[in-house]
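question for whoever is on the cluster today: can someone run the full assembly for these? two chains, 615 residues total. i dont have access anymore since they changed the login thing
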Amino acid sequence: MAFQATISALTGALVRDLGGDALPDASSKREAVSAFVRSQCEGVPDYLRLPVKIAAVLFDYSAVLVAGRPFHNLPHDKQIRHIHAWRNSNLLPRQTLMRFFETLILMGWYSERYPTEQP
Amino acid sequence: MNDPTRAPQRVQVAIIGAGPGGSVAATTLAEAGHDVLLIEAGPHLPVDSAPHFRRDEMMQKYCNGGITPSFALSTSMAYLEGCCVGGGSEINRGLYQRTPDTVVETWRRDFHVDGITCETMVPHFEACEAVARVSPLRAPAPPSSLRLQEGANRLGWRCAEVPRLVTYDDKPSGKKQSMSATFLPRFLAAGGGLMPDTRVHRLRRIGGRWSISGTRRGRTLDIEADTIFVAGGAIRTPALLKRSGIRRHVGGSLRFHPMVKVVAQFPEEINLPGMPDPVHSVKEFEPRFSMGCSISAPPLLALTMAEHPDHMTEVDRHWRHMALYYVQSTGGIGSVHNVPGFRDPLVRVQFSRSDMAELAEGLKRLCECLFAAGAVTIYPGISGGVVLRTTGGVRGLPDTLRGNRATLSALHLFATCPMGERGDRCAVDSFGKVHGVDDLYLADASLLPSPTVVNPQGSVMAIAHRNALHFLERAAHGAAKPRSSDGRTLIARSNL
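^ ran it for u. tokens below:
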């Protein structure tokens, strides 16, 4: 449950940052992206499956230390600040985790946003 | 035999992996009258079961949904592999080139591959090209591809249109000549058996025969075979051999074509839906590095633009003016390992300072070429958010990518079980038989001794064809080494 909440919140925050909330049907698109990210996390090499989930939950609860609440309960501006802190961290594992989730969310979001534009 | 739900208990030849190498070997042997079962870990889906290079195709046909990272102390690299009947041929662009003469010569000289020359390879290329047709574009190339050519021409660099495994008879964008559309129908027509959705865990030698243990849709199965060809690709093949206790020169010599991408934006629209895939490649700097144009659908543009989060909205505003370009080299080495208790292999890679300097030089040259072609903005796929707006800005790019955390990826992987007669570095002999192991052969990119410099599918298919014919001749002579490795003589005796 904690993992699911983290992925939903992370997806929501990044999609909103991309201006996605202004689009019609934004909510169902966002949920489709979130489902895609969760599905991809199940498909990673098996020795990474549990570490990825644990790392996601650690990311969620690390926000308690800096903002007093888990990431999935933060307002949007603080969520974005937390994402930036991890993305620009000097600690490689934090950067790598953010890059991993951002990549999946971008792939998922732009596939929803442009379903037919296949050059 | 074609019923995929029936698991035969005994077969003459089992081929594990239905990618280009496995499909060519399976078809060659089945058409020569052998009882062949082709086993594939992934599903059997039509080539158009999902839009190409999109999310749904990743989920259906890529190993681990397209998330296959490698690990490194400094610069890591993602790689992609197909996991479906047809393997990489179902998910790639089908760019086709024969193995360059210099590469074949390297294999002969440095790995002591017997009987391999540019001349002896020709009939094998021809045989494969007769089944999986290779065509140049009939219509004009897409604007994104032509821009690369224009840039190269203005700089006086060699640039060529690369033919594709595509026919353009029915529609301008072409019909893909993947394995599921070409070799596999012939394989099935020849009586071959196809078993998709089947994971092989281990091979064991019992009583002069091979026992294959695996799982199919959650159920365990055991198959006996007189001979096995392993064709799971450069990562999965060494992993299976190692799990089966075969380790000599296996998995430790991974090579690849590491790639860095850029997004280039032009004043005019260049990224138009419905156009054929890009086909141009800058050859001026081969074999050190080459450049090309990638599929540039908005999701793929966004992935490279992830290095430029402040400019991400440019994709929404200008994606029709943007295209993805890449530079790829042959640098870097790696190794494949099994993780105790887990199924998926772990890949480690490392790059020397000169490998990264070479890629950095390639990146600069690529940007130079794109500015010469009229690009107004270039977003390199390296972290740090450097955005280039003039040719002069190219000089500001780093001289080496080490430490800059380049986003590297690789589509072409090789050489984890190199072929040849050198006992100090080769896992299989000159025709794919595993050294020191009876009746076990390889038929995929794992046995190519070094990077092919160009797209490797043509090399994989031709070598698989060559080695399958040699196997037939060897079998006809009661395992005696054949006197001739002349491809034309062998082909005359087969149906391919």
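summary bc i know u wont read the tokens: The interface with chain B takes residues 18-19, 36, 39-40, 43-48, 87, 99, 102-104, 106-111, 113-114, 116-119 of chain A (CB under 8 Å). The first helix of chain A runs from residue 2 to 17.
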